[in-house]
UniProtKB/TrEMBL annotation:
GO terms for molecular function: protein arginine kinase activity. Belongs to the ATP:guanido phosphotransferase family. It comes from Paenibacillus radicis. Appears to be allosterically activated by the binding of pArg-containing polypeptides to the pArg-binding pocket localized in the C-terminal domain of McsB. This is Protein-arginine kinase. ATP binds at residues 29-33, 94, 128, 179-183, 210-215. NCBIfam families: PRK01059.1-4 (NF002194), PRK01059.1-5 (NF002195). InterPro entries: Arg_Kinase, ATP-guanido_PTrfase, ATP-guanido_PTrfase_AS, ATP-guanido_PTrfase_cat, Gln_synth/guanido_kin_cat_dom. A motif (RDXXRA motif of the pArg binding pocket involved in allosteric regulation) lies at residues 340-345. The gene is mcsB.
Length: 355
């Protein structure tokens, strides 16, 4: 196990994002997150500094496990050794949570080489095992997360109750401790004004809809994070299957809405996509909210074959590169809001003209 912060903060695009998964024209990524705590230790919010340090030592000692080494090579990053900008970049890449970046005691993250596996230590729970896959691969992500969880459970005495299941800091995670989610791009449902009806139906079947960075974040750029809310009273596979079925229906609704746009308002759609492409190719200043919307328009244009000279991988990269933390990391200095808007526009121009 090695510690090398730069390799995780210098590049916007994680290796796992460089390949396209199933339904990647609509589903950006799939995530499984498992919350676990260690028996006989207080939850992180109540633990003392020595107690949280013991948890850190227990978890980090497992990283030499030979079986874990067959999954990937891992690096351990201690949050105490990262500056605020480095932590912000890791949040923007979805490798750590805002809670771990801002409030943790003896916090750390264990990352696989391709960044598809992220194990947070001393966040809201002692362990948060996260697995990410490109496109719609919920069962594949669950299989990987379950494999890692099983391995850790052979080395740690998890806090578990026969009636309640796995015990977690937040009551909403008690039971399986699993959060399954997909990041999904729904521009056509927004443009055809069907999105509110769809989102309302989603919440009625026990799923949550959030923005790009989870709970409390705004759904910018027509990107929505859909996840399970119920963790108690259902098996892991039931949770996975329920989310899979609902997301499959959403994908079909989005595809139908895209067909409707092309048939009924193709000229307006062409104009919208082309305008956003033109603005992003030449703009001298752009804030993050406008960038998110323009990127959504261009991404839709790529998916529909309207724009042919920009790879989808570039759009995935710009999703991260246009965020405030990465812009400053890229510039090598702290930037004011206006300076970030100028850099953002410059970076987008460079990416578009280099293709």
């Amino acid at each position: 196990m090695t510690s090398n912060t730069n390799r995780f903060t210098q590049h916007a695009l994680s290796d796992w994002m460089k390949s396209e998964g199933p339904d990647s024209d609509i589903v950006i990524s799939t995530r499984i997150r498992i919350a676990r705590n260690i028996q006989s230790y207080p939850f992180p919010m109540l633990s003392t500094n020595p107690q949280s340090h013991e948890v850190f030592e227990k978890v980090s000692s497992i990283m030499g496990n030979e079986e874990l080494g067959t999954i990937s090579n891992f690096s351990l990053l201690s949050l105490d050794e990262l500056d605020e900008l480095e932590k912000r970049v890791l949040v923007e890449k979805h490798l750590i949570s805002p809670a771990l970046a801002n409030e943790s005691r003896n916090g750390a993250v264990i990352l696989s080489d391709n960044e598809s596996i992220s194990i947070m230590v001393n966040e809201e729970d002692h362990l948060r095992i996260q697995c990410l896959c490109p496109g719609f691969q919920i069962n594949e992500a669950w299989d990987l997360a379950s494999q890692i969880d099983d391995l850790f459970e052979t080395q740690l005495d998890y806090a578990f109750d026969e009636k309640r299941g796995y015990l977690t800091s937040c009551p909403t995670n008690v039971g399986t401790g699993i959060r399954a989610s997909v990041m999904i791009h729904l521009p056509a449902l927004v443009l055809t004004q069907q999105i509110n009806r769809i989102l309302s139906a989603i919440t009625q079947v026990g799923l949550a809809v959030r923005g790009l960075y989870g709970e409390g974040s705004e759904a910018l750029g027509n990107l929505f994070q859909i996840s399970n809310q119920i963790t108690l009273g259902q098996s892991e596979q039931e949770i996975i299957d329920n989310l899979y079925g609902v997301v499959r229906q959403i994908i079909e609704h989005e595809r139908a809405a895209r067909e409707k746009l092309q048939l009924e308002t193709r000229t307006k759609l062409l104009d919208r996509v082309s305008r956003s492409f033109g603005i992003m190719s030449y703009a001298a200043i752009m804030d993050s909210k406008e960038a998110a919307q323009r990127l959504s328009d261009v991404r839709l244009g790529i998916d529909l074959g309207i724009i042919k000279n920009v790879p989808l991988q570039v759009m995935n990269e710009l999703m991260v590169m246009t965020q405030p933390g990465f812009l400053q990391q890229y510039a090598g200095e702290k930037l004011s809001a206006e300076e970030r808007d100028i850099r953002r526009a410059q970076l987008i121009r460079e990416k578009f003209t280099s293709e």
